[in-house]
């Protein structure tokens, strides 16, 4: 009888310790979250990073991917983003000019490269990109897929490169203007177009395409991916995610997908 009298307080103590441990575990902290809007070209890398962040920090990272322009316009209209990763400076500048970026949080996160791709079974290979190269001949009677150069960063960079290389005028009427870089990649992967212009990181994730040429890095402005917290959203969770993007763990994931970390 005395044993049970002594055991009950101990059981109560053990139960209280268990409750404390569970309450501090990542699984119980999943009610905390951060909403991340990120450029479509970062889909694979940021998905992996968000999963690792949730696992190690106990904060659920909810991600949304589209072209940088689409995401910036959604944020401008009040979409509930907390962290934004753009594939170029233009759309981050667009938000910053409207005071939609939290001051002091913007930084350059990544860089990338432009490549020319073809379906994996194409006879095209080892193209040398130089001023006046025969891009129109490579396209033939078909079309070239690329992000819409009016607003999609990959397409903006690509058009600038082709203008500097003196080939844009010969191909501008053969362009399939895709809603984002992943849509351009998909067209080439399905064999619907003979060539496409995408980022090197996009080409690397698909076994259905092959890189046939790299655009010279001096043919276009430097490809920079800035990241920042949205104005009014500087929560502990948003700050934690932005900091995590610069961690060695996140850097290794970005590098695995072919990005250069700033």
UniProtKB/TrEMBL annotation:
Keyword flag Metal-binding: yes
GO MF entries: metal ion binding; molybdate ion binding; tungstate binding
GO biological process: molybdate ion transport
Residues annotated as signal peptide: 1-29
InterPro entries: ModA (IPR005950), ModA/WtpA (IPR050682)
CDD domains: PBP2_EcModA
Keyword Nucleotidyltransferase on entry: no
A Pfam family the protein falls into: SBP_bac_11
Keywords tagged on the record: Metal-binding, Molybdenum, Signal
Source organism superkingdom: Bacteria
A cellular component annotation (GO) from this entry: outer membrane-bounded periplasmic space
Binding site for molybdate: 41, 68, 181, 199
NCBIfam families documented for this protein: modA, PRK10677.1
Quaternary context: The complex is composed of two ATP-binding proteins (ModC), two transmembrane proteins (ModB) and a solute-binding protein (ModA).
Family the UniProt entry places it in: Belongs to the bacterial solute-binding protein ModA family.
PANTHER family linked: MOLYBDATE-BINDING PERIPLASMIC PROTEIN (PTHR30632), MOLYBDATE-BINDING PROTEIN MODA (PTHR30632:SF17)
The protein's name: Molybdate transport system substrate-binding protein
